[in-house]
Structures are given as C-alpha cells and as structure tokens.
Amino acid sequence: MVRGRLIGIDHGIKRIGLAVSDASGLMARELTIIKRKSKREDFERINQIAAEHDAVGFVVGLPLDLDAKPDQHTQADTVRLWVERFAQTTDLPITLWDEQLSSVDARELGKRQKRKHDAPIDDLAARVILQSYLDAVRDGLAEPPQ
Known about the structure:
146 residues, alpha/beta, five-stranded mixed beta sheet, 4 helices
C-alpha cells in the first residue's frame, strides 16, 4: 500500500499534466497543467507543488511504443531522459509507469466533466496514469515507491 501522496506526471512537449493521490494512496485526482518553460522552471514548479501536497514520490507516464524499431528514438526515450534530469532536482522516488491508453481514458473523463472539446486534458491523463499505478499497487501488481 502507498503511504502518503503521490504526484502523477503526464510529460508532454508543450504541457505537463499533474495529478495527486490522497494520503491513503487509493484515489487520484487531476491537479493542474503546467505550460512548459525551461527544464529548470518546470522542475522547480513540480517540486514546489509536490512540497505543497507533502508528496512522497512521483509517478511519470512512460509512452511505450511496442512497434518501435530498436534503433529508433521514441517518445519513451525522451521521457526517460527528462526523468533522469528531473531526478537530479529531487530526493523523492520516481516511478515510470506505462501510460498506454491514458489519453483515450482522459478524453472520456473530459467529456464526463463537460470540458470543451479542444481543452487540454494533460491533467486528466496524469490522473489516469496515477490511478492505474495506485490500482496496480493495491492489487499487488506493482511495488509502492521506495
């Protein structure tokens, strides 16, 4: 079981979606969308938000591409590099989590919340990623952050 709040992150080229779990690690909710500036500013803002919520770790969505060729640079490679750099700015554990179908589920959430069709859903995608991880930990399919 997860003890403490986690911050879910949906990494994007223009925006970063954030979600937060409750302290018991059962439920995730969308939090905010950060418009990308510089890595330094983005990392500072994410760490500030984590501190405000007394977070004990991060869960970052990893966009796995099963059709990618071995020598092909993928979005997952970009996210891994970003996480390596982000890890240098925090002492909190960072877990990479498969984000397949998070955008589809986030769009559905957006419809249910009656968001405008063209409104960003990065925060909802972060919520879906984080909830998927929390469910997997609860079901014994993933390890809680160390």
